[in-house]
Amino acid sequence: MCGIVGYVGKNKAQDFLISGLKRLEYRGYDSAGIVTLDNDGKATLVRAKGKITNLEDKLKNNKKDDKIGIGHTRWATHGEPSEKNAHPHQVDKLFLVHNGIIENYKELKAELNEYDFKSDTDSEVLAALINSFYGDGKYPLTNAVVQALKLVKGTYGIAVVSELNPNEIVVARSGSPLVIGIGHDETLIASDASALLGHTKRAIYLNDGEVATVTANNIEIKTLNAEPVSAKVEKIETNLAAIQKGGYAHFLLKEIMEQPESLTETLRGRVNIEDGVVHLGGPGIPETELRRIKHIVIVGCGTAYHAGLLASYYIEQFTPEITVETVIASEYRYRQAYIPEDSVALIVSQSGETADTLACLREIKKRGVRTVGIVNAIGSTIAREVDGGTYVHVGPEISVASTKAFTSQVIAMVMFGLTIAQAKGVKNAIIRPYVTEISKLPEAIKEVLNEAEGTVRKIVKKYVSYDHGIYLGRDVAYPTAMEGALKLKEIAYVDANAYAFGELKHGPLALIDDRFFELALLPEGELYDKAVSNVQEVLARGGHIIAVTNVDKFDLSVESIIKINSEIKIFAPLLMNLVSQLFAYYMTVEKGYNVDQPRNLAKSVTVE
Ligand code: F6R
């Protein structure tokens, strides 16, 4: 979603602002802008609809040596993507960039009726509100920001500068991340630490309700109630290589192909093959409490939700006395759902910033239920607010479509389930096969990716002209089918839906005709024969089946077959999902769409 950058220091602000915005491009945006101030406070504001290259074109005639400035990439919420709606918004001598949503902007706008608004955004209302307290700059800008924010309902990460004081940036957050990077005679601001890489490794993550006044050599943080905050300086662990394509055509392909390594990071120090057990320190739940757990609620959105659903099937297999319910965060936050005693909630999020998931976390915590994060982004809001957690450690996921995070989220949750099973005294004979397969998965993933890439690439060509796809699976292959269909629709814009095989007869079978292909996930196992019967029913109606299977003697006469050769059985669906990921990737490449930044989408959904 929207991105914020800011700079004050010894170097040219425009250079950092543009390079920082480019780092945040992956989050999705539709317009961009920057403002810088010279020593006398004279502002240069440049904004453009569309890509950052459009902004750069405009900047060619506006090159400045200014040492302070703020910038923004906007993902439209209020008002269409256009130059007038792009940030920074100017009100008199004040400039503001804003991530988030001001929910009471209409009421505030009505109060500010003397001001002539130039955009359709809620953000400009916030700029005007701050300015109404700031006026001719008699009071410190920080005070004006605080006064205004006390009246605001909604979420924000903001950066504000004024022509009246060209030495400081005021930043604040509530529900939308902001990081302050500490350099040598320079201070940098970003909504995502990746923008700071190459400049500094030292950063302060602002908390909700905090306001910082930032100059080149000083950072002063207070709460909205004027209490001083002594901030913790943290080390940014990510390195530059992790956010570069490393020779791949797209981030998505890189992220699919690096799953053997990313899963290895998830498992590091957590699996003991000899004893057939796992050790997860992060959740920090005492064994007596683990033994009492009767119910797990798993909360996530999109891919994280699918990961939770798949994990729930597994957890039920080895801890039969536990119920596991996986819920979509945007729904759950408004449901009147009862959470039984002795429950634990798993909060699943790659970015750790998803607004709906965060809202659920806060609601669940209020009810006194213990929360455990399954998060990738270190230091993210969800990671900081959960009671305990397990980082999946897959490194930055830059492509909008989530791939490597899914695989690791599933396994991290299964390991959490195994931790409970161990505490409850489930026999090692039951647990051990899971642990053994988990330890072998990175290598198996490597082999499958190497084998399947070429096959998938070829097969995709047969299906490029299809606008409809049906993904089919049952049991553990069903959530896997859901994830495959999501990948295809979000990047290749193919209308793809997933059904449990058993549901076909209850409606979807009516769809089968030459406009549709059906991707059938057919793992070896108890339900394989039943799934084969369902495939026969589709074939009898002229279906165009692509079978993905690990069954040695697969003898169905279907249009295309993608074979998985691996000793992995329990987690075969995770291997099949690699095929779905590659299928979506190559389909998108064939269609010539933007793989890493699909239209209308953003990487981290920080608004409701
Ligand atoms: C799909 C995708 C989204 C995210 C969802 C949750 O490829 O990326 O569906 O999975 O927006 O995001 P996180 O995991 O950051 O909470």
Describe the fold and architecture.
The chain has 608 residues and is α/β, with parallel strands linked by helices. It folds into three domains: 3-236, 4-Layer Sandwich (Glutamine Phosphoribosylpyrophosphate, subunit 1, domain 1), CATH 3.60.20; 246-426, Glucose-6-phosphate isomerase like protein, domain 1 (Rossmann fold), CATH 3.40.50; 452-597, Rossmann fold, CATH 3.40.50. Helices cover 35% and strands 23% of the residues. It is built from 17 helices and 26 strands. The strands form five sheets. It has an eight-stranded antiparallel beta sheet with strand order 3-2-4-1-10-9-11-14, covered by helices on one side. A hairpin with a 4-residue loop joins β15 and β16 (277-278). It is globular. The termini are close together. The mean pLDDT is 95. Fructose -6-phosphate (F6R) is lined by residues 301-304, 349-351, 354, 357, 401-402, 486, 490, 604-605.
Helix content bin: 25-40%
Indicate the mean pLDDT.
95
Number of helices: 17
Radius of gyration: 25 Å
In the sheet with the most strands, the strands line up as: 3-2-4-1-10-9-11-14
Attached small molecules: fructose -6-phosphate
Low-pLDDT segments: none
Give the assembly state of these chains: single chain
- Counted up, domains total 3
Based on Cα principal axes, name the global outline: globular
The helix/strand class is alpha/beta
Main beta-sheet strand count, sense and barrel state:
8 strands, antiparallel
| CATH architecture identity of the largest domain | 4-Layer Sandwich
- Give the CATH class of the largest domain: Alpha Beta
